[in-house]
């Protein structure tokens, strides 16, 4: 296993948990996990590549994982504004630590919202942005995913799941602040049943990957932070739409799973056609869905390493 190290760093008033896979490179890639509130630190050991040509830096965001366990942040402390400032300080820290000439953000799922909003606000602080499972228009994406799932369920003739889908009629427009957690849970469970969300090989295989991680801890899992802590972020997401933001001052890249119906790839394809940037590209990863970084590790690494070389010119 390649060398990595963990640490806590004081970021914007709290002790923030980091994992580093250093590679003596002048390019540093900061991975913004999804969720919100779902740590992806367990996946780094398998998605990390021995041929990696960049320093890989991951952190548990405020309200997530080991950062939350260390700080016990309250619901009122977890806002998009604070998360953006956390990221700003994180970038400054990484630049100094690695003497980085190039800083690249990679935002996954919820992290793709955080990443896009960051470069809107601080366009000069990073060299490039990669959106993986990029959220563009939340409700439009959810509607597309629901319609596709509805057709699959109907064809399956599974009365139990047909009934479950019928109860979600007019999704996602039935979502509000009072029912959002239950509605999300119910729909994602149906999608996962038909391999349209989550890890495509199922939760048993996913749990095996997690338990084999060198940073896995039963204690951490037993004290897993509640998703309710991230209510403010969830409320922000349900009305999120960045489709009108199309002019970028830095290179922009999107990586999509060909079978991603959790954050539908078709929406990203439409958005990509509208954007302008100094450099841009869209990569579709076959045999992968929303967790493409662990579903097709080989292609994921080839793409990310290629982007880093493209940005740095090395």
Mean pLDDT: 95
Secondary-structure element series: EEEHEHHEHEHHHHHHEHEHH
Q: Main beta sheet: strand number and arrangement?
A: 8 strands, mixed
What's the helix count?
Answer: 13
What's the number of extended β-strand segments? 8
Structural class: alpha/beta
What features would you highlight for this structure?
314 residues; eight-stranded mixed β-sheet
What this model shows, in words?
The protein is of the alpha/beta class. It contains 13 helices and eight strands. Strands 1-2-4-3-5-6-7-8 form an eight-stranded mixed sheet, with helices on both faces. Helix 1 links the parallel strand 3 (27-32) and strand 4. The longest helix has 19 residues, at 80-98. It is globular. The model has no long low-confidence stretch (mean pLDDT 95).
SSE layout and pairing:
Blueprint: E1 5-11, E2 14-21, E3 27-32, H1 44-47, E4 55-59, H2 65-71, H3 80-98, E5 102-108, H4 110-121, E6 128-132, H5 138-156, H6 159-167, H7 180-193, H8 203-211, H9 218-222, H10 231-237, E7 252-257, H11 265-274, E8 280-285, H12 292-295, H13 297-312
Parallel strand pairs: 3-4, 3-5, 5-6, 6-7, 7-8
Antiparallel strand pairs: 1-2, 2-4
What would a concise description of this structure say?
The protein has 314 residues and is α/β, with parallel strands linked by helices. It has 13 helices and eight strands.
């Amino acid at each position: 296993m390649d060398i990595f190290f963990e640490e806590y760093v004081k970021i914007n008033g709290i002790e923030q948990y980091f994992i580093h896979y250093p590679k003596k490179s002048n390019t540093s890639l900061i991975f913004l996990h999804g969720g919100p509130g779902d740590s992806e630190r367990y996946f780094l050991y398998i998605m990390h590549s021995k041929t990696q040509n960049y320093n890989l830096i991951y952190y548990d965001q405020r309200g997530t994982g080991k950062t939350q366990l260390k700080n016990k942040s309250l619901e009122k402390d977890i806002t998009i504004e604070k998360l953006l400032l956390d990221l700003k300080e994180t970038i400054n820290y990484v630049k100094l630590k690695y003497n980085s000439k190039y800083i690249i953000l990679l935002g996954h799922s919820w992290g793709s919202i955080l990443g896009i909003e960051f470069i809107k606000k601080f366009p000069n602080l990073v060299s490039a942005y990669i959106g993986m499972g990029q959220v563009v228009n939340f409700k439009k994406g959810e509607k597309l995913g629901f319609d596709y799932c509805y057709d699959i369920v109907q064809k399956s003739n599974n009365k139990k799941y047909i009934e479950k889908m019928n109860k979600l009629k007019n999704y996602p427009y039935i979502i509000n602040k009072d029912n959002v957690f239950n509605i999300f849970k119910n729909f994602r469970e149906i999608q996962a049943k038909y391999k349209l969300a989550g890890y495509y090989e199922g939760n048993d295989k996913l749990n095996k990957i997690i338990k084999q991680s060198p940073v896995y801890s039963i204690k951490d899992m037993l004290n897993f932070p509640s998703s309710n802590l991230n209510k403010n972020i969830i409320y922000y997401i349900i009305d999120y739409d960045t489709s009108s933001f199309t002019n970028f001052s830095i290179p922009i890249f999107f990586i999509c799973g060909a079978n991603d119906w959790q954050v539908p790839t078709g929406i990203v394809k439409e958005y990509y056609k509208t954007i302008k940037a100094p450099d841009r590209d869209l990569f579709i990863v076959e045999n992968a869905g929303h967790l493409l970084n662990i579903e097709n590790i080989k292609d994921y690494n080839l793409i990310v390493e290629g982007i880093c070389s493209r940005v740095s010119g090395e």
